[in-house]
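Exercise: predict the fold of this chain.
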Amino acid sequence: MQRVLLFNFLLFVFIVGLGLSTPLEADELPDHLIGILQELGINPHHVGVVIQKVSSPTPFLSYNERSRYQPASIIKIVTAYSSLSLLGPNYTWSTSIKGYISKSGEVNQDLVVSAQGDPFFTLEDWFSLWQNLYMLGIHNINANILIDNDRYQIDYQNPDRFDHQGDRVYNLIPHPLTIDFDRVALIITPINKTIHLTADFKWKNIYLINKLISSNATCPKDPEENLNVVTSTQQEKIVIKVSGEWPQSCGIGHISRRLMTNETIIENSMRQIWAQLGGQFTGKILFNGPHEILPTLVEHRSLPLFVLIPLMNKYSNNVMARMIFLNTGSVDADNKTSYKLAQAVIKQFVSNKGLNSTDLFIDNGSGLSRQAFVTPVLLNSLLQTIWRDPVGHEVVSSLPLMGTEGTLYEKQSNSVETNKMFLKTGTLNNVKGVAGFVQTRTGDWYTLVCLVNDENAKKSSPFIHGLLDWLYLTQ
C-alpha cells in the first residue's frame, strides 16, 4: 500500500510541475486523494473537507461539508475563540485565603480558601499561597479551614465512563480548586543500570513499590505504554506498584496518574505545606459549607488567558479546556457555572457572529465526548471569522505549528515547509481530523477543515498529509 500511496503522490507532483492539473468542481476531491481513501479502506462519504482562501468570499473546495462529525480535540478552537472574545485576553482567575487575624497573629476563626477555577494552578502556586500567609506572621491556625470549591455545578460522574481509564489525567472532571490537574507525577530515573522511582511531591500517604527492570533495548516511541501501574489502598495508604521494562536509552521519564481524590490532594498537601513552613494547624479541613463574606488575606492570580490558551491548544490539555469552557458560562468568576450555561453562552456567541449555531454542539469544551459535533462548513466559517477578528491572532498563534511543537511535533508533511501551517488535530476511536490555517508556497493563506469519522479513521494520516501537500503545492 505504501508503494501505491507514494506513486500517487509522486505522479501528482509531476503533473503539478508540468502545470497540467485539471480544475476541480467545488464539491469534488482530487482523484488521487479519493484513491488514497480507497487504499486505506475509508469510505469517502465519512470524510468532510472545506478549504477556503482567507481573501475569498466562498470556499474553493467543499466536500460533505454539511454532514455532522465528531471533532474530538479540534473543538478546542471554538473554546479558545469564544473564551478570548467573551472574557478578554487579559482575564485572570483568583485563588485566595480569607478570614480574620487576631492581634497576636493567630487565627481563631475559620479561614476560607476561595477558588474561581484557575486552569493552571500548580503545587508551587499552592505552596506560595500558604507561604505568603505565613509571612504575614500567621503561624498558628486554631480553627477550621473551609474550601469553597463548588463553583462548578456539574456531575462528577465516574471518570472511567469515557474509556475505562479513569486514572488518566485527561479524564479528570475538574473542580475550581484543581492543583496540578489532581495528578501524582512519578519520575523514572536510570542510574548505573538501576531504575529509580520517585514522586515529585513527598506525599505522606503514598508508598511506592518499584519493580522496574533496566534493559539495553532501544527506547520505544512511547515507553510508558510498556509499564504496568497498579494502585491499591492499605490502611489509609495508597500503594503504587510500577513494573515493566525501562530501557536505559529512554533516559528520565515521567508518569502522571490520578491516584487521589480532589479533596485528599487538597487536604494532604495543605497540611504538609503548612507543617513544612513551621506552622501549627489544630482544626479540620471542610469542603463547601456555608460561610460569611470575609476579607482577603492573601491571593494568587492566574496567568492571563492569552498565555493559557496556547498551553491548552498546543498540548491539547483537556482539563484546561473544560475549566476555561466552564468559565464562559459565567463571566463573573464569583458566580456558579455549569456545562449547560457554557453551552448556551457559546451557542449565542456563534449566532451573534452570523453563523448557524445548530451546526455545532460543544459538550464540555475539550472534545473528549461522543456527543459533541460540528459540520465542516460551520467550522470553516468560524476559522474565517477568527482570521478577521482582532482577537484572532491569539487563536491562530495558539495552534501547534506543523512539525515543530505541541501535538504536531515531528508530524511533518511530505512537502510542506515548517512554520507554514497552524493546525489543531483531533483523535478518538473512529475519529481523526485537522483544522486550522495553511500558508501555501505562493504565500496565500487558507482555512482548512478535514474531519474523518470512520472505523478506519486511525489510518487516515496519509490522506490528511496528502491533502495538506496538495493544498500547499497547488494553490
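Check your answer against the key: The longest strand covers residues 237-247.
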